[in-house]
Design brief:
nine-stranded antiparallel sheet, alpha+beta, 33 helices
């Protein structure tokens, strides 16, 4: 006996083996599913290293020249660098080095670190260089803490909460927002320093030398060692005021408090948050890629429910910016669709098979899924929207093998065999075909899993991986578990047993459809085969033209709506906090007005805007901090409950807010965007900053001409007004050089840090600078006195020229070239970003290049992501199809016959395009993934059909007649495999939840593509076979 047939026979006959195997699958699956992390999108690694260098007081131009360029030069010899991105801004430079895919990130990091640490010519004022791997952290939820207490006490209370939260097992990352660092600020009036003959540097030296806490050795006594510690650290304002800054031989002593004002407060006044109009501390909880957002959310919710009753009087906690709630909503929605799909698949099976057949075939689905969860956990994948969709697709695909097996077993039962022999013979007979169809599907999904590129590809690759796992597991289930159950459940099944009346009626209906509908249509198509194939080709060309002509829009990724909306506001550098606050109040007031707007009336008269959070000194898009940036965040009514789209809400908020004339940029967006990137992102490269700015302004003006385009701005923005100080000739003779003059200016106007101390577990800096009234005008600077080496005071204006100027807020570089990047948003209700980018490339960019020949342009954002991902997907599909061709060529011992199958694959695209137009949705990357997934299904159906065509030709039938007979005979099997797949995805396709919009394009491609391919396989394959026979391209073997 064949060993494989012997194994099947053993599993059918053994009373417990199959059930033990099934129980093992269920057990390991149930254990694993509770440990799977849950998130919206699958995590993907960031293969990049960040070099961060602080240079306090430096301008963007200074940092570009003295920091960024030196780092770029140092890492030029490091191998496997994909891209180097530098950002020079006031006080800091950041260089991000991205690694090529497939390389060792540890070695890459060590190479970068070694080269950067070897740089020895940074300016003296540069602080510690930080080199770190970039790790992705995702926001989970924030908690706003408000109450009747001072900002200092509020921060102290938030610090206590943070420490307690981090003691929770599920919580590892907590960040406090709304406060800056503590400081003791010593402000010295210029008059007092002049009167005492002191400089800021002299006072700094006096403070740092008299405020110390240092170990001073130890005493080695007979019994033990005793440590000696010098403790003279000043930790209060009163202690600092008593520091001696001047001591004369006459006995006169001047204390710091006699000449300076000392205050205890926050370093940056603009670093604050208002929650629903009240000063708040924001506890932002984040997660790493290995943590479960829903477990974190549950732990946080439970903690604050217990904390509220024991909190200080008047203190309240409010959950806000709840990003993880969307995860739960989406997973629950997909679980519901999965259960509905499973029920529909089972009902579809009942239409064709008896209950016991259908039950055990359907039982293979949850068993296969549970074992898939086991593998998911151990290869590091999560339970997310894409993995759940992979399981939904698998609902139908997993049935194919079981259907072929069950149908063949039924055929053997009809021949009069007992249940055991019918099961063993039936499975063994189709085992080769089942395995072959598994391999063809594996070629497609395997190529997709490892061939997709870009951020979109890194997200979508989860679907083919899930399908590979589930199909592999189901193959084991179909061969080693299903046979036993079918063998025992069919013991009483006899060939003479009458069929139920319902089954007889259904069989008659199926026979009528096969003979009268399909039979006549196939006869007609084969008889007029050239005309019919021409029609199909015409339909395919028409489908392509729908896309090329713009009738079917194309986008990188479907829009995803959440429950948080932000307005990110950017004013010119130098804008005072008071002015920013005035405009932020306009945004907050407009948001509150939306609750009373009739156009945005919500179900049950619920408030659309649940909470408002005004965050100063924060703007995720700007890449800057200061009083000129702010973010207003809205917590909206749940997306599943509220009426109106996010575009409607943004439009109304923008209208109610009105014009903000001073703003450089205002961007309305959700805090997390999908992997598709920004709708408009165009990078300009050049060497001349003035030309880059002019060219980017021209580009923005052009883009403003498109309807639906908004929030346009570039990242090459003017910096703060500056005063450039340069020593005059003869300054050296008066005892001044650039170093001494700049150090005195820096200490006076920028300030200096005398020491850092710990007070009540809080880190404090002791900072000094001249008093505020002495640094408010240019005349203060001109009349500032420099101290020479002899202690003589000389006005700055006598030894230095003072001229006004203005640089840039930030300078960005990519691969050692300066850049300016233009970004914008597109209202998808009225415009399409792909069409705007294409039109801009064709009609405007050539003119721009002619005006600025030294500037090059690159498309980033969605345009680049789609190009990268589509290129990777097309390459993957090509590899997969070639693998299928090789397999089929080996199986059929022919090069011609596999071509018939290959030609039928693209025709399924007709159904994809038609489905998207019927559903009214845009074509996107998930749509194309669905189409590529169809290839395996179409091939499997075609293999079944061709096998019967060959069978009839061997019996002496003509090719035309063989094709007609094969289509009618395989009608039931092809229809059943299509119906079960469509049934599994139908609940998702008909889902109206906002959370499902990202997934519907994929389901649409498979469902409508399958409907079309089912018809085409049954008709096109016989036509193509007959046409090839007309030209003697096939060798017909007759018995």
């Amino acid at each position: 006996m064949n060993p494989f047939k012997g194994m099947i026979s053993f599993m059918c006959d053994h009373p417990t083996a199959s059930n033990l195997l099934m129980l093992m699958f269920i057990a390991v699956g149930l254990i694993s599913v509770t440990d799977l992390k849950r998130e919206t999108f699958p995590d993907f690694s960031i293969n990049a290293v960040e070099v961060s260098i602080a240079y306090p007081g430096a301008t963007a131009e200074d940092i570009e020249a003295s920091v960024c360029q030196r780092v770029e030069d140092a890492i030029d010899s490091v191998p496997n660098v994909l891209e180097v991105r530098s950002t020079a801004m006031e006080n800091q430079g950041i260089v991000v080095v991205e690694m090529k895919e497939g390389q060792n990130i540890i070695e890459f990091f060590n190479d970068i670190k070694t080269e950067v640490e070897a740089i020895n010519d940074f300016p003296e004022q540069v602080e510690d260089v930080i080199v770190k791997r970039m790790n992705r952290t995702d926001p989970v939820v924030s908690v706003a803490v408000t109450g009747p207490m001072s900002p200092m006490h509020l921060k102290f209370y938030c610090e206590q909460l943070k420490d307690r939260l981090k003691a929770i097992d599920q919580v590892s990352q907590v960040e406090i927002l709304g406060f800056s660092g503590h400081e003791f600020l010593i402000e010295i009036p210029l008059y007092n320093m002049m009167r005492m003959g002191l400089s800021v540097t002299d006072i700094e030296r006096a403070v740092s030398s008299q405020s110390l806490d240092l170990p001073a050795g130890s005493l080695e006594t007979r019994d033990s060692d005793i440590l000696i510690r010098f403790t003279e650290e000043r930790k209060t304002i009163q202690e600092l005021e008593k520091l001696i800054v001047v001591s004369r031989d006459t006995g006169l002593e001047i204390q710091l408090g006699d000449i300076a004002r000392i205050s205890d407060g926050f370093k940056d006044e603009e670093n604050k948050i208002l929650f629903d109009g009240k000063r708040a501390g924001l506890l932002q909880i984040n997660k790493s890629k290995s943590e479960d957002s829903l477990k974190i959310l549950d732990a946080i919710t439970s903690f604050f429910e217990k904390e509220q009753p024991q909190a200080p009087s008047g203190v309240s906690f409010s959950i806000t910016q709840n990003i993880s709630k969307v995860v739960r909503d989406r997973l629950q929605m997909l679980t519901k669709n999965g259960i509905q799909g499973l029920i529909l698949v089972f009902l579809a099976m009942l239409l064709f098979f008896p209950f016991n057949f259908s039950f055990w075939v359907a039982m293979g689905l949850p068993v296969s899924f549970l074992l898939t969860f086991f593998f998911l956990k151990h290869i590091g994948l999560s339970l997310n929207m894409l993995s759940m969709v992979g399981l939904l697709i698998g609902l139908g695909l997993l049935m194919d093998d079981a259907i072929v097996i069950a149908e063949n077993i039924a055929a053997h039962l009809e021949k009069g065999k007992n249940s055991f022999n019918a099961t063993v013979d039936g499975i063994f007979e189709v085992s080769a075909g089942v395995f072959s169809s598994f391999l063809t599907t594996l070629f497609i999904f395997g190529a997709l899993a490892f061939g997709m590129k870009g951020d979109i590809g890194k997200v979508l690759y989860v679907i083919p991986v899930i399908l590979i796992l589930t199909l592999s597991v189901s193959l084991v289930e179909a061969f080693f578990i299903l046979p036993n159950h079918l063998s025992h459940s069919l013991k009483n099944h006899g060939k003479d047993r009458p069929k139920p009346r319902f089954r007889q009626m259904l069989d008659k209906g199926m026979d009528w459809a096969r003979e009268k509908l399909l039979g006549k249509f196939v006869d007609l198509a084969v008889n007029y085969r050239y005309f019919f194939i021409g029609l199909v080709v015409f339909a395919f060309i028409a489908a392509i033209s729908m896309i090329v002509g713009g009738h079917l829009k194309v986008k990188a990724f479907p829009d995803i709506e959440g429950d948080v909306l932000q307005a990110r506001i950017l004013f010119p550098q130098g804008t005072p906090l008071k002015r920013t606050q005035i405009y932020v109040d306009k945004f907050v007031n407009a948001a509150n007005l939306m609750n009373d707007d009739p156009a945005l009336l919500q179900p049950g008269n619920a408030d659309l805007v649940q909470h408002t959070t005004a965050m100063y000194n924060i703007n995720a898009d700007a890449g800057e901090i200061g009083p000129h940036v702010a973010t207003v965040s809205l917590d909206l009514l749940n997306a599943e409950t509220r009426s109106g789209t996010m575009e409607d809400i943004i439009s109304k908020w923008r209208t109610l807010t009105g014009d903000i004339p001073d703003a450089i940029a205002i961007a309305y967006k959700e805090p997390t965007i999908g992997p598709g990137g920004l709708p408009i992102e165009i990078r300009l490269k050049g060497t001349n900053l003035a030309n880059l700015k002019l060219a980017s302004t021209r580009l923005i003006d052009w883009l403003h001409g498109y309807k639906g385009v908004s929030d346009l701005y570039d990242d090459l923005r003017p910096g703060k007004p500056e005063i450039q100080v340069k020593l005059k000739k003869g300054a050296k003779a008066k005892g001044f050089d650039a170093r001494s003059a700049s150090q005195q200016l820096r200490a006076a106007f920028y300030g200096s840090t005398a020491s850092e101390i710990i007070v009540r577990d809080q880190s404090y800096e002791v900072n000094l600078k001249i008093a505020s009234p002495d640094r408010q005008s240019i005349s203060n600077l001109e009349n500032f006195y420099l101290m020479d080496s002899n202690g003589q005071r000389i006005p700055l204006k006598t030894v230095a020229s003072i001229t006004p100027g203005r640089g840039y807020a930030g300078i960005k570089r990519v691969n050692a070239q300066r850049t300016a990047t233009v970004t914008g948003d597109v209202d998808t209700r009225v415009a399409n970003s792909r069409e705007i980018i294409l039109d801009t490339k064709n009609r405007f960019i050539p003119k721009l290049k002619k005006e600025f020949p030294d500037i090059s342009l690159e498309m980033e954002g969605q345009a680049k992501e789609m190009k990268t991902s589509m290129g990777g997907m097309a390459k993957a599909m090509g590899i997969g199809v070639f693998g299928i061709f090789c397999l089929l060529s080996f199986q059929f011992r022919s090069f011609q016959e596999p071509l018939v199958i290959m030609v039928s694959i693209p025709f399924a695209f007709i159904g994809v395009v038609a489905g998207h137009m019927i559903m009214g949705i845009d074509l996107s990357m998930p749509s194309l993934l669905g189409f590529v997934s169809l290839a395996g299904i179409v091939v499997n159906d075609s293999i079944l059909l061709i096998s019967f065509v060959k069978l009839h030709t061997e019996r002496g039938e003509s090719m035309a007649q063989a094709g007609k007979l094969a289509s009618k005979e395989r009608f039931r099997a092809v229809l059943l495999t299509s119906v079960t797949t469509i049934a599994g995805l139908f609940p998702l396709l008909s889902e109206r939840s906002m959370q499902a919009q990202i997934l519907i394009p994929l389901a649409c491609s498979i469902v409508f593509g399958l409907l079309m391919s089912t018809l085409l396989v049954l008709v096109v394959v016989p036509c193509l076979y007959t046409i090839m026979a007309d030209f003697n391209l096939l060798r017909l073997k007759k018995n």
